[in-house]
Amino acid sequence: MRWDAQRLDLEDPSTLPGMPSIRGLLRSVQVPEFPGLTFHEVRSRSALNHVPGESAMPFPWTINPYRGCSHSCVYCLSGDTLILMADGRQKPIADLRVGDQIVGTERRGTYRHYVTTEVLAHWSTVKPAHRVTLADGTELVASGDHRFLTGRGWKHVTGAMSGAEQRPHLTTNDKLLGFGRSAAPSTACAEYRRGYLTGMVRGDANLKVYRYLRAGRAHGDVHRFRLALADPEALVRTQDYLAREGVRTDEFTFAPATEKRRAMTAIRTSAAASVARIRELVDWPTEPTDAWKRGFLAGIFDAEGSRSQGVLRISNADDEMLGRTQAAFASFGFDAVLEDRGLANRVRTVRLRGGLREHVRFLHLTDPAIRRKCALDGVAVKSDADLRVRRIEPLNLEMPMFDITTGTGDFIANGVVSHNCFARKTHEWLEFDSGRDFDTQVVVKTNLVEVLRKELARPSWQREHVALGTNTDPYQRAEGRYKLMPGVIRALADSGTPFSILTKGTLLRRDVPLLAEAAQEVPLGLGVSMAIWDDELHAALEPGVPTPRARLDLVRALADAGLPYGVFLAPVLPGLTDDEESLDAAIGAIAAAGATGVTVIPLHLRPGAREWFMAWLRSAHPELVPRYERMYARRAYVSGEYRTWLARQVAPVLARHGLDRQSGGTARQADGSAATGVPGDEEAGFPTGSLPTGGLPGVPPKEEREAPSTPGTTSEPDQLSLL
Description:
Layout: E1 25-29, E2 38-42, E3 48-50, E4 61-63, E5 66-67, E6 77-78, E7 82-84, E8 90-92, E9 101-108, E10 111-134, E11 139-142, E12 147-150, E13 153-156, H1 190-204, E14 206-210, E15 222-229, H2 232-244, E16 250-255, E17 264-269, H3 272-281, H4 290-304, E18 305-308, E19 311-316, H5 319-331, E20 335-339, E21 348-353, H6 355-366, E22 389-406, E23 410-413, E24 416-419, H7 426-430, E25 441-445, H8 448-456, E26 466-468, H9 478-482, H10 485-495, E27 499-503, H11 512-519, E28 524-529, H12 535-541, H13 548-560, E29 566-572, H14 580-592, E30 598-602, H15 609-620, H16 625-631, H17 640-656, E31 676-678, E32 681-685, H18 702-706
Parallel strand pairs: 2-25, 4-26, 26-27, 27-28, 28-29, 29-30
Antiparallel strand pairs: 1-2, 3-4, 5-25, 6-22, 7-8, 9-10, 10-11, 10-22, 12-13, 14-15, 15-17, 16-17, 18-19, 19-21, 20-21, 23-24, 31-32
């Protein structure tokens, strides 16, 4: 739903230094009671937003006090936390950008496996910091809400065994999953470059001087350097490193691709001075530095190394090359053994032992150029790294922290599997609040009530139905601070304007007395979204939103106050919550609370929302992934056949609890037809009680309603026109 409601309609941009570029901005504030949120207070020029005429929605106007939603939750890591990239390198989480290819995991049979995924969102906040220290020396600085994968499932950094803070949390009995502590990335200094050239040239290049006699000349020396590779990254690096040393080379096609072999490109030079310089560069140093050894290992690995089927090896026939390779490995504490299979060409192999833990450390320590050898795609998440939790300690300070959301729902942080935040985008796939601005930045229209009263007082105002909560939730946490809704309710009621509110926020209970008063003045409707009824599913997909049972208490409060309201049971998840037992439990509880109507809506997976949900499904219910891929392969909505099946599944349950269509469970328009056009599903109907009914389309203002009626007239109300 991209109506005018998505525009702020604000005044000229603020020119104050250091302020965000939000039009009409007064100030940006962070307050202790809302950690991790920034409120941008603005002055808006309009309050009422017109719904386009072609829209199927049964209301012509909306009001959105906020832009963004503070219902979402944020899990965070310190900015220097290293994230494993798809090419095997690591990058601080603060430096990531949307679209970056990184490593996540997915379950395949018994084990999780590393897979490539994408950064879909990236943001920062300020939160209290905790340090988690593992037995192998790995340190992780994170918020208490952050979750890591242990041998016993996902666990928060902090929590409690009972009480309000009860939740799965890390203890010293836990062991994290991943490969653990790695090495600091290499820097390409002069010594590293020289070591790389030594490994590459001695390992795979042709570097010779040929001498033969020519008639009339003292000698016929031919100087030749040639390096041919199928992987362009290593060739480009070698050519660049030589150029830095004053050696210019020419590039040419060495061999075209065939059905069985990739194309090979080469560089060469025949200049005597250049060949002499290369020979000088690749001389064995008397006392090799650590930087040289890192470069040498990277070069020889690019030239003659391989990594497949869990084995990292470097092969060569030269005794000195093999000895230097083993010595370089040993100097960094690697366990590398020489294997001789007795080949006629005397080629032997230096094999690195220690599994994935040591492979990753080698790759980060040396930084080879050929990245296909560094990828972890398809590797099982198994390691002998000692990732037992040793300490969890508060740092007693708040610090900038960062988080990302990925296609797999997780990522690799400092070598361990880390959960990302789903709740930040939960509203997208629920599609009752479908904007993309749900973040920790919440824009607040501070002068909304003042502007609204002016607009409602215009002679042209026809007192048509105004809807709240169709874009952003008016009872999100920000409302607890700014208290805009009481003024909005009073303004609408005083002007004789019928209105409706859709929310999943239990803060609505605060305004129940005010709504009861307004209901005596104008028609109104209230809709409560129950979202996911199952507690476990709710905890996984909506951790930042009030629980279904808390919202059920809200439903009871509305019933006790005699207010009209309907409940949206949405989304129904195929294969998870669409069985009769699940539907009966949810609808039965809603009916018992006194709801006048229920609308049941199946899950939609629109672009952007699809990635979030499918990532969760792969992690939590991999057995359902094929079914969902078939159901939503070419569309965001379920098929007509599934809708029909679900309707038949729901009908007897609604009838059993007195909420079927025949008993008035669906809101009706003036012509008697069902009111459809629920945000996110134009085919779905609004439940009875969620839209205002009764009264006149143009109810006079409160002052006129309280004035004595003119003799000889009647005031019999017609049904409210909803369109």
